[in-house]
Each structure stands twice: as C-alpha cells, then as structure tokens.
Amino acid sequence: MLTASQSTFDAPGNLPLILELEPEYNHTVPQNYLLSVKKFYGDNMLAYRAGLSTSTHELADEYRYITYGDSLKYVQRIVEQLKSLRIMPNDTVCIYAKNSPLWLLADIAVSFCQAITVPIYDTLGVDNIQYCMDFVKTRFVFVGSEVLGNILGMTNSIASLEHIIVLDRFVDESETSVLAQKVFLKLDGSDIQLEDDTKSLFQLSVHSKQAIEEADTDDLHVPEVEKFVTQLFTNGQVSRLHLHTISTDISSASGELELPSGQTPQDPSSIIFTSGTSGRPKAVVSCSSNLYASGCCMGRQLQPYNKADSGIQSSIISYLPLAHVYERCCEHYSYCRGYNIYYYSGDTRNLTQDIALAKPTILPGVPRVYTKIYSGVQKKIQNAGTIASMIFSVATYLKRLYMSRNIQTFRTGKVSIFDSVFQKIREALGGNIEVIISGSASLPAHVLQFLQINSCARLMQGYGLTETSATGLLICSGEAIQSSNSLGKSSYQTEVVLIDRQDISEFTLKRDLIGEILIKGPGVCLGYFTGDLKKLEKLTDNNGFYHTGDLGKYHSDGSISFVRRISLVQKLQHGEFVDLEQLETAIEASPMITTCFTYADSAKSAPIAIVSIDSSLLKEISDDQKVDDIILKEIDQYVRKAGIKSFCIPKAVKVYKDVDWLIDRELFTPSSKKQHKNFRVKFRQEIQQLLKAIE
C-alpha cells in the first residue's frame, strides 16, 4: 500500500485561514442553512433571469435576486406545503428539473421535513428515470413543467407516487399529454402487462394493447393516457395521484423555522444515483455530513470567503447538473460561505450571455467544458492573423516564466504587465472571475496551462466520485506537482492510498507504483440503497476505504496521477495490452478530432476508431476516402506523439462530421464520462465493418 501525501495549506494559491468562516461539515442541512441565513441575512443568496424555476417563458435581460433572509420564507412555504400533504420522516422526495432557485430551496425544505432528497437526471433516459423513482418508492416529486409529461407517462409504473408538485405555472396540457403518451409507449414493455389493482391510474383497453403491439409507436395515439392527463389537469387528482403547483407566495411568511428534533448529521438525507458507465444507475445514500464534507475538505482555505479579492460578494454560476453530486455539494457549500448563486437561463447555448450578465467570481466546470473553451479560443487566435497569434504566444510564454519564478502570483493568477493581452478571455468569463474550479478528472496539460496563464484567475482541481461526495484528491493553485496529468494529493481530513491490483491489471504496485485508488474520509457515503434504509449495501472495505475502480500512479512528491479505469484495457491478438482511454485522450489532442471512441478485439492485431471531426478544418476536401486517410494519418501522428506503442494505433476509422456526442446522454454521462458500453451498442454495425477492414 502507498499513501498519498496530504495537500498542504501553504501553497501560493491558498487563502489565509479564517476559522470562523470555515463551514462545519458535522452539522445537518437545517443547522448550516439557518446559520448562513443569520450570518448573511441581507446579502443576496440566489439570482435568476428565467424565473424561480428556470423557465424559458420567463427569460429576462437582467438578473433578479433573493436575499438569504427572503430565501427562508420560500423554504418555510415549501415545508408547510409538504407537511400539509402529510410528508413523513424518511419519505423519498424526487427533484426532476433544471437548476433553479426552487430546486435548491426545495432540497433544503425536504431536509427540514427529515425526508430524503432524490435528485433525478433528465439525461438518464425515461426508462432509467422510471426505474430510479420506482426503486426508491418515492411519494413526492418536484418537477419542471417541461418534463411533467415524462412523469405522467410513467406514473402507472411508479406505484408509490402520490404527489406531483410542479415548479412553475407554464404547463401546456396538450404538449404534456403528447409527451406523456410518447413516454408511456417507450415503457410499454412493462406498462402493457399491468393487471388491475388499486394502484393503477388507468387501464389499457384490449384494442389499445393490440394497436401498440402491432403498430409503429412513433405516431400512435393512446386514448387512455390522454384521458388520464385531462382528468388530472381538470380535477387535480386521479385515484391516488395529486397534481399541485409549488407554494411560492411569501407575502405573509414569517421567515421562521424550527430545527427538526432528533435529526443528526449522520442520518440518511439523500439518495444520489451514479451516472455510471454501465448497467443501471446505483443508488448512493448520503448524509448531511457527506454533503458538506465536499466543500469543507476540498475548499478549505481555497474557495473564497463571503467577500472576493475585489471586495464584492463572492458569486458562482450554476449550470452543471444539480442532480450530480459535484454541483449539488458545490451549491450547499456556497450558501455556507455566503455566496450569491447565479442560475443559468436553462439553455447552455445562452451560457455565454448568462456569464456576461452574472459576472461571477467563481467558475466551476469539468475538463471537457474547459477543453471546449480552450479550443474556441485557439480558433479565434488562429483567425486573428500571424501578428496577433505571435503576440499571444509570446505573452503566454513570458507570463508562464514570470509566474514560475514568482510563485506568489498563483494566488490571483494575475500579472498586470501581460494580462492586457488576455483581456478578451477574461471578459468572456464575465470580467470578475477570480477562481476556476475543475472537477471530475485531471485537466490535459495544455488546458491546465491555458487556465493558469490566460484566464487571469487562480485554478484549483479536484478528483472525487459520487460515493465519496466529490472528495478525494486536490491540486492547489501553484502547488508543485511532478506529473502533468496529476490528480493531486489528499484533501483535508481525507486519506487516499494505492493498493496492488496485479490480479486484474498488467501493473504491479512494487514495480510500477501503479495500483487502485482507495479513498477514506468524511465524504465517503453511508452505502448503496437496496430498498431499505436500515439495510444498506456496504460500499467500503473493512478498513473504511472506498475502492474507486480507477488505477493511479504514485509519484515521489506524494501525488497521484490517473492511469485509467481498471475495466478499459483490452488485449490484442498477440497478447499486447491496449489502454483505450489513454489512446482516446491522445487522439483527442488533435485539433481536427472533437471526440474519439476506440475498440479493440482480442482476435485482431490493432484497434479501430470512430471519431467526430471539425469539418471546417477540411472544408476543401469533399472525397470521403481522402478524409479518412487524413484522419488516420492524424491519429497515427498523435498516438506516436503521446509515446504510445505503435501496435496501439488504430488501423481503420469511421469519420463523422460535426457531431456533438457530448450532449447524447446514451454516450456520455452528465459528468461528461464516455459510456463505452453504449458506444459499443450504438455503433455495433460500424465496429463490425471496421474490424473486417483490418482482417
């Protein structure tokens, strides 16, 4: 076993410790929230420009604000509504909507009711959403109007569901009905077989069953579902199911709430579904301590306090999925720090405008987001001409050299004599950015350098998982780390070790210093939900470590770098091992290739590749075979450039032009991880054709 060094708090990018401003993770959500309301009562807590529920129907040209004091009135109203509906301790309450002030306020309100919040990804797909909601036996769901039809189309498959609470009033009955019918048909394998019982909301006639079984369901009409939706909208109730609108009238709210009695920070408070890369999502049970441990362990002396360096209130932009552990932990930690949380307008295509209006001081993201920003900047530099490109390159080189010799500059990321060259980049990030946070995985070296030098902000990187509440390894701004793809050192009060896994990999810990990454600390969750909160499936070993399934390499400075997922190595025909993730990373370093998927077969001598390219770089070439040849040469060049063995170079390629697979949730998780299993399914035919080409 090798143990990672503890991340120190004397790195250039760290803040002076103000102990009374560091949140306490060993508190419940109501305790920490009420402390924040008391401490920051008159400060802004939430900002929105698309309504309280982030609806495109309410898009405005400027942000509106909710203070910490007024936020308590909203929470009070939601708590009162839930209690009027007879919510009970440990009831599961799903939240299925876009990021919005009401999302976070409903989440907090659920904790005041001592119930369990279950965030739901819209991008899980309707079959997984139905599975997740049924699995946790939810009684309540908060839902955005744009996905209400999804819920109504699956209600017959969720026997426990009693109350649907819509977050806004912009509900189109006709559109909702059409969506409900489509969703019902997608789930028809289970729904058609339903027998008559007291839980059923509607029954299909023999005619409808036969029509569904025989017809093309794309345009099929389901009268029973349409009738059910009409009755629900008209009466607000059908059998066991009730439809409500969330209570947001705070005109007479007192803004007073009592702490729930008997609630502890270790009580189950949430069930988070993993965005796993294979199989059904796993249900991870976490408590309040886990929720706050992410910020308390990863953000200690790193994330700003209530006031930014410039003297204004610290603020953060919310656009990453709130159903994901990273963003949810980030927002709960934000109000503990006294931040103002700006919510995006609900469409990532408007994110640039949202950032320009919000002018946040903190930007959270993941490597793929920052890689996309980097690529966009590089294109603009190339189009600006030779002189402008040269000035940018020289300024970047000189600033990097200056910062390496004056490490105190990593505290702000600013060096005034060079930063005028990078002013447009800073303006594109809102103009007030002081901290950039990257989570989920290590940044590519060129993107890391870009953010450190050209963003004029300080950078912090973190590595964690759903099961560890996003806690684990950390790199502080300016911290000397040996490896360019490092995940960093152990975060505050967290222990990270490597263990030998030569049983399932080609590496040994003794020879290669490579083993599986294990994490132990306050962020590690309670267990996996199996249907009973009292009988959780254990997710740690007997020593309290969570086994991540990731291979890491130990370095002499005590840091750990990411090698690959244990499951992503394939053996070729002659016994050579191919690391598919390493191969894809090398290929995606090419400016021509936006996304790459590789596949290897043990009966073949080389891998194959399926790629999406930026066609603007090859716009003068119309012959598809010539494009394929160019891309194969490009792949060969970048694989060799990365130092990967020549037998790993793909010998056949399928090229797609200008396809953004990143937004396809069958192919990428909400945290931007490739779902290789689904790639293999989606491109089964193409894979077989490519494999034949290298016979």
TrEMBL record:
Record keywords, A-Z: ATP-binding, Ligase, Nucleotide-binding
Domain AMP-dependent synthetase/ligase: 59-529
Keyword Transmembrane annotated: no
Name the UniProt record assigns to this protein: Long chain fatty acid CoA ligase
Taxonomy, superkingdom: Eukaryota
Database matches in InterPro entries: AMP-binding_CS (IPR020845), AMP-dep_synth/lig_dom (IPR000873), ANL_N_sf (IPR042099)
MF terms (GO), sorted A to Z: ATP binding; long-chain fatty acid-CoA ligase activity
Biological source species: Spironucleus salmonicida
Gene3D superfamilies: N-terminal domain of ligase-like (3.40.50.12780)
Gene Ontology cellular component list: endoplasmic reticulum; membrane
Phylogenetic classification of the source organism: Eukaryota, Metamonada, Diplomonadida, Hexamitidae, Hexamitinae
